[in-house]
Design a protein that fits this description.
By secondary structure, this protein is mostly helical. It has two helices and no strands. It has helices spanning about 5-55, 65-80. The model has no long low-confidence stretch (mean pLDDT about 85).
Length: about 80
Amino acid sequence: MTGNQIQGLIGMTATLGILILLALPSVLGVLRDWRVDRQIRKAQEAHAEQEAQKSSSRSTVPSTATWYADGRRSKKLVSS
């Protein structure tokens, strides 16, 4: 190899190294975001499964507040 070829190789290696150093934080940030998104999605799916299990185990008897509100509505309809 001649001196010019070695200088060119050193220049290209230095340029590639600088490019990698500049791009590395961005790549690491994207990878971290993907991991966090995956964790959030997994937690939402687990939460949805828990909600589905809770709703299927709940009784169908209306609450006291619902019963009271229905009674008030029917009295309004009768008295008007």
